[in-house]
Write a structure and sequence with these properties.
The protein is α/β, with parallel strands linked by helices. The chain is built from ten helices and six strands, in the order E-H-H-H-H-H-E-H-E-H-E-H-E-E-H-H. It has helices at residues 23-36, 43-49, 54-65, 71-87, 96-104, 117-126, 150-159, 173-182, 209-217, 235-238; strands at 10-13, 109-112, 136-137, 166-170, 185-188, 201-202.
Amino acid sequence: MRSLPTGAESVVFDCDGLLVNTEVCWSVAEAAVFAAHGHSFGPEQKALVIGRTVEDVGEAMADYFGRPGAGAELAVELLERVRKELARGAVALPGAAELVRACRAAVPVAVASNSPRELLDTALGSAGLADCFAHSFAADEVRSPKPAPDLYLTACGALGAAPKRSVAFEDSATGISSARAAGLYVAVVPSLPGAALDHDWLGTSLADPELLDWAGELGSDTACGGVGAGWNLNWAEAANGTGHQPE
C-alpha cells in the first residue's frame, strides 16, 4: 500500500458517510422504502445501495423488488424520504472539520459527492462545513456520476491540480472506483465495517492522528512520486511493493 503523498496538489473529499453522518439518514429512508414494498433491510441490502446516486439506488431497488421499470418512481420516493431525514439535521463525523481545515491551509480542497446539489448543500450546511469549501460538485452537475471519474476530474480541474497528484477521501466502493478511474490516490474510512476496499491509506476515522500529521506536512514535498517526506504514512507496507501507483 502506497502512503499518501505530502506533495499532493489538492485534496478532494466525498461527503455522505465520510464528512457528514448522513448515512444514518439514508439508511432510515432506504429501510422505509424497502419496508413499504415488503422487504427487510440489513447489511446485505445496504451494500447494494451505498455510495450510489438516487437514480441508481432506485434502479437497484427496482431490480431487488422484481419491479422492472419502477426505478424512477422508487428514486422519487427515496429522495422525498431522505429530504425529510436530512431536515432533522446531520452532524460532521469525528475529525472531519479539523482535517479539512488542515488540508485547506496547505492546498486547494473540494467536495465531490454522488448526492444531488440539493442534498449536498443541506448536508454540508447542517454539519457546519459549507464555509470550508469554495468548490463542491454534485452528481447532477456532471455527465456521469460515480463510479465514473467525472466528479473527480471536474474537481481537480477546478482546483488547477493534476489528478495523479491529488488525494481523494472516500468511504464506499463506488466512490473509490471513481477516484481510481480519475487517477487519484485514495484514503478510505469505510462506512460499512468489514468491507474489503481498495485503498492507499485505510483507517477507522478522519480523526486518526496519522491523517492530521500528514495534513500538517502537505506542501513539504515537491512531487507525489518522490520518497522521503512525501511518503510518511505506512511506509513499511509501501516498501512491500503493493498498492496504488498512479501513471
